Known about the structure:
Layout: E1 2-4, H1 10-15, E2 21-30, H2 36-45, E3 58-59, H3 76-79, H4 82-87, E4 92-95, H5 101-109, E5 113-116, H6 121-126, E6 128-135, E7 144-155, E8 158-159, E9 162-163
Parallel strand pairs: 1-2, 2-3, 4-5
Antiparallel strand pairs: 2-7, 6-7, 8-9
Amino acid sequence: MRILYPPISEDEIKSLRVDDMVYISGKIYCGRDAVLPKICKLIDEGTLGDIDLQGSVIFHTAVSPAGVGPTSSNKVEIEGSFPKLSEAGVKLHLGKGAIGADTIAKLDECNSVFAVIPPVTALLKNNTISKRMVAFPELGMEAFYELEVKDYPCIIAVAHNKSIY
């Protein structure tokens, strides 16, 4: 397996292929729904300050004392969306955690499925060397963070107009 060290060069990106298994080691950014629009606004305004996005990696997650990882699908707001999304044509819901019997029945009725992604918080926590809040501290664990990581495992899912999906 190959290790990518941010900032990642244009040539490194060109050499990646769908299904490549790689590790990421170095500094990466973390953000999710609460903070990424704010980062985009900073880009538009030209006021990023010391945030250097050139060749960077952004991991869509929150950063908590427990580490980083996927959120639970059985939260009221998430599980409550399964029926409507399935009726609208969603065929696969991906997350973690047990879901209720009513939701399971609705998925069957709509010919949809639910898949889980293994909780990787413990693995990623062990591979996280340091963390630093970079921007928007008022958002707590959903603020924009910079992590220094070692050997974060990942599979390239989309590259050069090709996808594993």
